[in-house]
Amino acid sequence: MENRKEKIWGKKNVEKDLLEVPEGWKDPGITKEDNPHSVLAETSFATLFPKYREKYLRECWPLVKKALGDYHIKAELDVVEGSMTVATTRKTWDPYIIVKARDLIKLLARSVPYEQAIRITEDDIACDIIKIGSLVRNKERFVKRRHRLIGPDGSTLKAIELLTGCYVMVQGNTVSALGPYKGLRDVRKIVEDTMKNIHPIYNIKTLMIKKELAKDPKLKGESWDRFLPKFKSKTISKRKQPKKKRIKKDYTPFPPPQVESKIDKELASGEYFLQASQKKDKAQQEKKEKQKENESKQKERRAQAFIPPTESTQPAKKQKTSGSEVDITSLKKKIKKAQKKKPPVAFISATIWCLYGSSKGS
């Protein structure tokens, strides 16, 4: 049993070593010599394009035909129906080029320029057309979030392109991305998060940190979670809360008790069996009792006006006497203090000037 476990463990290690791709390795691709007999069946794809793209497609279609002609792919432009068609021929030797040709016409229909769209024929380049029209229901909100993805003067879109290595084109209800597979995955995440009201700057910041961490060979086999920022959403509901909140009662399968009717109440009290004259006498008696209660309340209300207010027991404060009575001793003290004080500077200067002026004149 132990030998068997060792064999399995050894096999797993071998598989793990085989799955690791060496650095700098590239797929050699397929050549005409690899498939001299061409494809067995013919395949074709067609796509529609909007009216405003007709002029541009007419101009660049000879270049498209020439590029696809190298792989023996037939391309047709139908201006009347507004469609583009690509199909394989008997000389087509690359079986996957028809899928690349289909993506090429899709990108051209989504306003991607020919210079960028033709890159799809390369082996390590793919495309992704993300539909964003159905992700947000409100049209105004959709336009705002789409503009947020582009940024002021296309700065946000440019940052995404630099970090992911992909060409991104926002057009109408779709976002077309063209580039390596890893970059396309990041672009899709950023676009979908932006439509879910998560600002693209958070994802851009994470990509920038990842790019710097990738340069360090020591961190290649480690987890980067401790370095990446963790953003918490602080979305507060702006919906007005009701003044009186209804508290839900515990669910019971039984219906609520039935409300007693007037007859049920009379049967319970015994009034139902009384005669009409007795009922009338009872009603008059109840009316008289109510009148007496109201009269007593009214008398109390009227008597309150004749009840004297409670007087305070605290002694009254002595008021300061003003008039002919003057404290002579305090007045003398004030005069003495005023005499002791030095004369002001202005007074001294005035007296000196008078003395000096009078002596000079004499």
From TrEMBL:
Keywords annotated in UniProt: Nucleus, Ribonucleoprotein, Ribosome biogenesis, RNA-binding, rRNA processing
Domain K Homology: 124-196
GO CC annotation, single: small-subunit processome
Cited Gene3D superfamilies: K Homology domain, type 1
Biased composition (Basic residues): 233-248
Annotated region (Disordered), positions in chain: 233-260, 276-327
Biased composition (Polar residues): 310-324
Biased composition (Basic and acidic residues): 278-303
Superkingdom of origin: Eukaryota
Places the protein is found: Nucleus, Nucleolus
PANTHER family given in the database record: HIV-1 REV BINDING PROTEIN 2, 3, KRR1 SMALL SUBUNIT PROCESSOME COMPONENT HOMOLOG
Complexes and interactors: Component of the ribosomal small subunit (SSU) processome.
Known role: Required for 40S ribosome biogenesis. Involved in nucleolar processing of pre-18S ribosomal RNA and ribosome assembly.
Similarity section: Belongs to the KRR1 family.
Official protein name in the record: KRR1 small subunit processome component
